[in-house]
Amino acid sequence: MALATDIRTSDAGLSQVLATVREALARRKVYRQTLSELRSLSERELNDLGMHRSMLTRIALEAAYGK
């Protein structure tokens, strides 16, 4: 006896996956851009903003992912 399996991907499922990937890539871009801009600031500029270099990664994560 043969077992046949019908595997189909619905367009709705695929579009949802693509939307999720696009959103993840967009958030990653925001993270990288924010971190790059913060790293380019001088110590004086960071002090004026009340930031320390050790805070930059966390700040960029919060900007991109809201964590």
TrEMBL record:
<feature type="domain" description="YjiS-like">
    <location>
        <begin position="21"/>
        <end position="56"/>
    </location>
</feature>
<protein>
    <recommendedName>
        <fullName>YjiS-like domain-containing protein</fullName>
    </recommendedName>
</protein>
<dbReference type="InterPro" id="IPR009506">
    <property type="entry name" value="YjiS-like"/>
</dbReference>
<dbReference type="Pfam" id="PF06568">
    <property type="entry name" value="YjiS-like"/>
</dbReference>
